[in-house]
Amino acid sequence: MVTPLTCRNFIHGEWLASSDGSCLNSYNPANRSEVVAVFPRSTLADVNRAVASAREAYQRWRLVPAPARAEYIYRVGELLGKYKEELALLICREMGKPLVEARGDVQEGIDCAFYSAGEGRRLFGQTTPSEMPNKMAMTVRTPVGVCALITPWNFPVAIPCWKAMPALVCGNTIILKPAEDTPACATKLIEIFAEAGLPAGVVNLVHGVGEEVGQALVEHPDVNLVSFTGSSQTGSVVGEICGRMHKRVCLEMGGKNAQIVMDDADLDLAVDGAIWGAFGTTGQRCTATSRLILHRDIKSKFTQMFQERAEQLKLGAGDQGDTDIGPIINAKQLQRVCEYIDIARSEGAQVLLGGEVVQTGHLQQGYFFPPTILDGVTPDMRVAREEIFGPVVALMEVSSFTEAIAILNNTNYGLSSSIYTRDVNLAFAAMRDIEAGITYINGPTIGAEVHLPFGGVKQTGNGHREAGSTSIDIFTEWKTVYVDFSGCLQRAQIDNR
User: Fold this and answer.
1) Is 0.85 surpassed by the pTM of this model?
2) Which residues are known catalytic residues?
3) Domains delineated in the chain
4) DSSP assignment letter at 212
């Protein structure tokens, strides 16, 4: 029996229990009887203390030169490399993804650290000529203030790093509220930030329930910005509250991503992409391939190849070396996947593979659901339109490129997209016509890189993009500065006309 880890809140440089001593457990989704960690069920008092800490620290941190702030983040990246294997194994236990993916999760945090650190010397403004003589005009970036970062469980290291690192380099202070399913991963990450030596109050961690701690952060008058990754339903509530309170808000929400396979595609390559896109991370990615839009001339052959490959995927705990697909995160999400299979059947879809909870051998100790392929799916079915967030993919047949694009765009989401074709003209038409924030040509819908913008359109987001240089725009305010050295009053648009 493994002794559960004890997690604490991290406020103003101190590790603290919740103000009333309440606790919750996180569990290993591959073995639901194993408690991975005990963590605080924080209260409004804890949130208030964290916000006050961040507010106080902000007044000092914003004055630290950006290159010096960046050196702290570079050190975090070095420490993430040092603890990479330990943290990856913890991700396996608490979130469930296979070890190779867990290592990638941590590596994304490392990459983000080094990229963000470089931005510390590149927080560029603009200079431009004034229309008046003896006058200078320029723009500079200033930090926003206290940032609440509300993050999901599927990338328990990468996504907090996406948000925290650019926020800190820009001169903001942060409060991380991680998902209830992965508190130990968040705790280890913040331990690394603390080891890197960031001043007290610059980085804070508050565990707890979303409806309690998350909502309190969103509604707190001294929080200037909320960065949220999660469901579109919750995101709409977050956006409404922040809009009413005139806060900055960054929303990264759901997806219903599709991969088009045209009749001229390299089918071996397209199957490789579909397997990884649909079943990587057990389909628990906002960029997961949940629809395969197949040209009718290759559909039969592709389907056979795809099903044969999917049948070979091995389910198991993430820390087993030969695992391809780990568990669903928890009982609630497993039930959601099962309900969508029932919906698919009721709407007339055919289950070609999978479709039932795994209840054999040691796998029955966890939340395992096999790779599932639905055929005969039409655009009006719910499984073609709603996010499932599990290892379930819908096959849809089309007769032309135009029809494929129309079906791909026929959804409330617009995060990631993919097309496999050898026709360069179709590839460029797809880049132009697909309604999504990300488009891959001859690649799967998953696999973001930290130096490029990440985000989507429609109900996927509210226009912001995480990662890349666009993350700097999220976490800074523009200030325009005029310097008049003429020694007299000059009125723009008046005295020069």
Assistant:
1) yes
2) 252, 286
3) 5-253+461-480 (3.40.605.10), 257-441 (3.40.309.10)
4) I
